[in-house]
Amino acid sequence: MRLLTLAKTAGAAFTAAALGGLATAPAVQSAWYRRLNKPGFQPPKQAFPIAWNILYTDIAVVSASTIDTLNDRGETAAAQAYTRALAANLALNAGWSWIFFNRRQLGPASVVAGALAISSADLARRAAAVNPVAGAALSAYPLWCTFATALSTRIWQLNR
């Protein structure tokens, strides 16, 4: 993996995290969020930054490795397709925070969470096709996004 590629994927992941954080940080302290009914399976708030920091690091490293491997094989179209899929995924990732926390649109946020879970599974599938170990490393991402979809959907159901 090339350092420049890793810098690009890490920069993209950091940007998504920062943009999402701009919507999330003030909202989790708000009276609106504290008043929401939340399911018993919601992890403690401290779990979210830990999980997401690990996942964003995983996304950056696996994506850089996948893109470089594809380019090294001469599969530039596949590398470009992966890069586009990564960009769409990170846009969904940051977008969910704005829809849920900033716009307070719980139903649409659940739909976006589902799309993010599907997009994350697609990234893991693409990475696994290039390197099964990398794909396995990225598999935690769609698992977490699937859990987040269930959590988001249940919060929506509890607060209609």
From TrEMBL:
Signal sequence coordinates: 1-18
Gene3D superfamilies per UniProt: TspO/MBR protein
A biological process from GO: tetrapyrrole metabolic process
Keywords: Membrane, Signal, Transmembrane, Transmembrane helix
Protein topology in the membrane: Multi-pass membrane protein
Keyword Transmembrane: yes
Pfam families in alphabetical order: TspO_MBR
Cellular component annotations (GO), alphabetically ordered: membrane
Subcellular localization: Membrane
Family to which this protein belongs: Belongs to the TspO/BZRP family.
Protein name: TspO/MBR family protein
